[in-house]
Design brief:
Elements lengths: L2 H26 L7 H18 L6 H17 L3 H14 L6 H14 L3 H14 L4 E2 L2 E2 H12 L3 H14 L6 H14 L3 H12 L15 H13 L9 H13 L3 H7 L6 E4 L16 H4 L5 E2 L11 E7 L8 E8 L12 E8 L4
Parallel strand pairs: 3-7
Antiparallel strand pairs: 1-2, 4-5, 5-6, 6-7
Length: 359
């Protein structure tokens, strides 16, 4: 038995003991959920159901109905210790019951309601991995387990498994577009760059990739597209250091060499925008030909990058451009964060232009 399972078994026993003690003291302090006459009625009903359950000639559907009724009766009065014992013992003594996945799903939810997330995760996994799926109220138990596990788990390797199972086993019951993007992010956390890029490609291949709204990820489409496009590009415009990039750009400006400037620009998502405009806006991604704004002009530039620059981003002030609105442009340089391509990871690129004085 693995240490993980052993630890979960220990904590399950400990948590169950605490539940039993809590339930005992609630009763002792006069706070039972049932009055005396109702308690007697409840006990009689449960005993009758237990008697029915012990019969050998009942079919599977009837047996499920009785087990479910006993469990829900316990749930209705919040007798969690008895409910956990009843369901786990039933599963243990009836390993071939087709509804075992559902019974363990109930146990997992009990632990969730009592703020024992590790134990809830354990029973969701046990339901998912040890027992066949079953439909309850027209819903797959395994589907519910996977959704709950994604809410509970913070381990990328586990989340990768859950996302893949949702996509492959329940493609019509989930938002595959969103799941592909979230799966890609988990692959990135694990350093599985090829798998991450493949997942981003799957995301982009979905019909609604460019329009989907993913909670907390407003730039999902642009992010995925930039990653895939950069991966597929030559990457031959990057410089090993910021100093080398700045010097090359300054030399091209001083020599009025528009062709060299165009060569230095990033070939993926290069933008030209005002400080107030979103750099990912469609009209900011248009191709900017440097020669169009240099003709007959003397372009000047700062000797050093702007003081607002920092470790991963830098700005170089230039002025004298032939522009209808402003003649001051700030060249934006950034450090490349792309571990999937070690040869350029950590290099620098000229990523865009901001028009006008800094705000």
């Amino acid at each position: 038995m693995s240490r993980k399972v052993t630890n979960y078994s220990f904590f399950a026993l400990l948590f169950l003991i605490l539940l039993i003690l809590a339930f005992f003291f609630i009763g002792r302090n006069g706070l039972p959920t049932l009055k005396k006459d109702k308690r007697k009625e409840y006990n009689i009903m449960q005993k009758q159901l237990q008697t029915l359950l012990e019969k050998n000639d009942i079919d599977e559907k009837t047996r499920y109905g009785i087990v479910n009724r006993i469990a829900n009766n316990m749930l209705s009065i919040k007798d969690y210790p008895s409910l956990i014992l009843f369901l786990t013992e039933w599963v243990s003594h009836h390993p071939d019951d087709n509804y075992n996945a559902y019974y363990l799903l109930m146990v997992a939810h009990i632990y969730m309601e009592n703020n024992s997330k590790p134990m809830a995760e354990y029973y969701f996994e046990k339901s998912l991995n040890n027992y066949n799926d079953v439909m309850v109220n027209s819903t797959s138990v395994h589907l519910l387990c996977l959704r709950n596990l994604l809410q509970l788990s913070t381990i990328p390797a586990d989340r990768i498994i859950y996302f893949n199972r949702l996509i492959n086993l329940f493609p019509d019951s989930v938002n595959r577009t969103e799941l592909y993007f979230r799966l890609a992010m988990e692959y990135e956390k694990e350093g599985l760059w090829d798998s991450a890029i493949d997942a981003y490609k799957q995301f982009l291949a979905q019909d609604n990739a460019s329009t989907i709204q993913i909670a907390g990820l407003p730039e999902a489409y642009n992010t995925a597209k930039q990653i895939v496009d950069f991966n597929n590009s030559s990457k031959d415009w990057t410089f090993t250091t910021l100093e080398e990039l700045v010097q090359a750009v300054q030399k091209a400006l001083a020599s009025h060499n528009a062709r060299e400037l165009d060569r230095y620009k990033s070939k993926v998502s290069f933008f030209a925008t005002s400080w107030r405009q979103d750099e990912n806006a469609p009209n900011s991604q248009s191709e900017v030909s440097m020669s169009s704004y240099m003709a007959g002009r003397r372009i000047r530039f700062a000797e050093n990058v702007d003081e607002s620059s920092f470790a991963t981003e830098a700005y170089l002030k230039t002025w004298g451009w032939s522009s209808i609105y402003v003649d001051t442009w700030y060249f934006y340089f950034r450090k490349i964060n792309f571990p999937a391509a070690p040869s350029v990871h950590g290099n620098w690129e000229w990523a865009g232009i901001y028009f006008g004085e800094k705000l």
